[in-house]
Write a structure and sequence with these properties.
mainly alpha, membrane, about 130 residues, transmembrane, DUF983, DUF983 domain-containing protein
Length: about 130
C-alpha cells in the first residue's frame, strides 16, 4: 500500500468527477447517475434519487444559488444596459420594461439550474451529507 492510499479515508478511495456532476446538476438530474430528477418542484430537492437511490437530503444549498443567480444576471444585464442606453437612447419606460422582463426571465431560468449545480458540487466534493457514500 502506498503512502497516499494509507492517508485516504476508506470512503474516499474513488474520485468523483466534478465537471460531469456539475453538468448533470445544470440539467437538474442526479449528480451520481444523471437519470433521476434532482428537483421535484421549482426549487425543492428530492430526498433521494428515484433511479439510483442517492440520498440527497443532506445538501446545504441554502442561499448560494440565489447569490450566484444575482451575480450572473447582474454581470450580464449591467453592461448590456450600458451599451443599449448609449447606442440607442431608448425611452426610460421602454428601457425599464425590457430590462425588467429580461432580468426576471433570466433569473427564473437560472435559479433552479444553479441550485442543481450547487448540490452537484457538494456531492462531487463530498461536502455535508454526501461524504459517506462512494
Amino acid at each position: 500500500m502506498t503512502e497516499s492510499q494509507a492517508v485516504m479515508a476508506p470512503d474516499t478511495d474513488t474520485e468523483r468527477e466534478t465537471m460531469p456532476a456539475l453538468l448533470k446538476g445544470w440539467r437538474q438530474k442526479c449528480p451520481e447517475c444523471g437519470k433521476g430528477k434532482l428537483l421535484h418542484s421549482y426549487l425543492k430537492v428530492n430526498d433521494s434519487c428515484s433511479n439510483c437511490g442517492l440520498d440527497l437530503s443532506g445538501h446545504r444549498a441554502d442561499d448560494g444559488p440565489a447569490y450566484l443567480t444575482i451575480l450572473v444576471v447582474g454581470h450580464l444585464m449591467a453592461p448590456l444596459l450600458h451599451v443599449v442606453y448609449f447606442a440607442w437612447r431608448p425611452a426610460p419606460l421602454v428601457t425599464f420594461t425590457v430590462f425588467s422582463i429580461g432580468c426576471l426571465a433570466s433569473s427564473l431560468y437560472l435559479l433552479p439550474r444553479l441550485k442543481g449545480v450547487v448540490v452537484a458540487y457538494q456531492w462531487a466534493r463530498r461536502m455535508h451529507g454526501f461524504e459517506d457514500r462512494t
